Automatic annotation (TrEMBL):
Residues 185-346 form the S-adenosyl-L-homocysteine hydrolase NAD binding domain. This is Adenosylhomocysteinase. May play a key role in the regulation of the intracellular concentration of adenosylhomocysteine. Substrate binds at residues 53, 125, 150, 180, 184. It comes from Sulfurihydrogenibium azorense (strain DSM 15241 / OCM 825 / Az-Fu1).
């Protein structure tokens, strides 16, 4: 079997962790049981570029149970859990091309390795795989029925491709499913980001000034959890509606240049470049802790910070200290990459259960409906989205009401008035 991982001897530890996560993924487990019986992806080759975590492992196992030939590579150089990669190779015979801390050349070599398998379905987290296919491996596009995309950042890139009419096959925006972004982005990112910051720094959040850049669903989650731990949360935004929402939710809202002067912790979750830029770094106070939970490592201008620094050192694992000319120290977590995955373990399995249920069902949908789909970005069909919610509630032992025939008729009629 062709694969490239750090150390196959880590497999036993990884297997236990995969099994631990699986206990909290009942929706995906039900889909796996159906896939095992029906084999809806029989003979299909899936190339997945996702964070190599215990939750992702359970998705890959589900796809293989559905009959797919599955190949996995990492969507971020620092998010790979090497023991999980080893377990997938040894115990499930799923080829993995990912090593924690791999350099840029290795990262792209791994992307090309899974594309070499001539996939029929692509599965992305950030759109690096599909972007590479469109830029350098266009000869493979004719083999592809469609793809799926997990993140806000990736969906933005794909919609830009569709707008420019260069997208060569349909893609399902899994991120836009209600059962993904309302839960994964908000509760998953909120908890795992705080987890990563605490593991890296062991600093007290209570009583601190905690700056959240961006108030999308990820920003909402981070702000919510930081406030829950006693922080004075400040939000920065460029969107007037989101800024207004943050104000109404009880947060202080101000420009980053003002927040930079008073913040103790900073988290960027915007998907944009240089959100914390040189002018912000110049006014930060001594000891400021800067981190990112957006997909790419572009939200903090690290090049400018490096140029400003007179010396740097790795003072703790996942903490780099930048000493500036005036003696101030600024601390950057996890090289400005996803702090929740680089310094912690990513989202808890309970929320990834819904996200990856959407991934599995969307892959099945793309394959079954490829001849009907245009070369554009689609939302997850409502029936799949609501089915995931129904299964999750069922697994949690929660029951809800059903509309009566009278209520259904009332809601569908225009004739009823006051």
């Amino acid at each position: 079997m062709d694969y490239h991982i750090k150390d196959i001897s880590l497999a036993d530890k990884g297997l236990l962790r995969i099994q631990w996560a699986e206990k909290d993924m009942p929706v995906l487990r039900q889909i796996r049981e159906r896939f095992k019986k029906e084999k809806p992806l029989k003979g299909i080759t899936v190339a997945a570029c996702l964070h190599v975590t215990t939750e992702t492992a359970n998705l890959m196992i589900t796809l293989k149970e559905g009959g797919a030939n599955v190949y996995l590579t990492a969507s971020n150089p620092l998010s790979t859990q090497d023991d999980v990669a080893a377990a997938l190779v040894k115990y499930f015979e799923i080829p993995v091309f990912a090593i924690h801390g791999e350099d840029r050349d290795t990262y792209y070599a791994h992307l090309n390795a899974v594309l070499d398998k001539k996939p029929n379905i692509t599965m992305d987290d950030g759109a690096d795989l599909i972007s590479l296919l469109h830029k350098e491996r266009q000869d493979l596009a004719s083999n592809v029925y469609g793809g799926t995309e997990e993140t806000t950042t990736g969906v933005i890139r794909l919609k830009a491709m569709a707008k420019d009419k260069v997208l060569k096959f349909p893609v399902i925006a899994v991120n836009d499913a209600y059962t993904k972004h309302l839960f994964d982005n908000r509760y998953g990112t909120g908890q795992s980001t705080i987890d990563g910051i605490l593991r890296a720094t062991n600093r007290l959040i209570a009583g601190s000034k905690f700056v959240v850049a961006g108030y999308g669903w990820c920003g909402k989650g981070v702000a919510m959890r930081a406030r829950g731990m006693g922080a004075d949360v400040i939000v920065t935004e460029v969107d007037p509606l989101k800024a207004l929402e943050a104000v109404m939710d009880g947060y202080r809202v101000m420009p980053m240049i003002e927040a930079a002067k008073i913040g103790d912790f900073f988290v960027t979750v915007t998907g944009n470049i240089n959100v914390i830029d040189k002018q912000h770094l110049e006014v930060m106070k001594d000891g400021a802790i800067v981190s990112n939970s957006g997909h790419f490592d572009v939200e903090i201008n690290l090049k400018a910070l490096q140029e400003m620094a007179v010396k740097t050192r790795d003072i703790r694992e996942n903490v780099k200290e930048y000493t500036l000319k005036d003696g101030r120290n600024i601390y950057v977590l996890a090289e400005g990459r996803l702090v929740n995955l680089a310094a912690a373990e990513g989202h808890p399995a309970q929320v990834m259960d819904m996200s990856f249920a959407n991934q599995a069902l969307s892959a099945e949908y793309v394959y079954k409906n490829a001849d009907k789909l245009e070369k554009t970005v689609y939302k997850v069909p409502d029936e799949l989205d609501f089915e995931v919610a129904r299964l999750k509630l069922q697994a949690m032992g929660v029951q809800i009401d059903m509309l009566t025939p009278e209520q259904i008729e009332y809601l569908s009629s225009w004739e009823h008035g006051t």
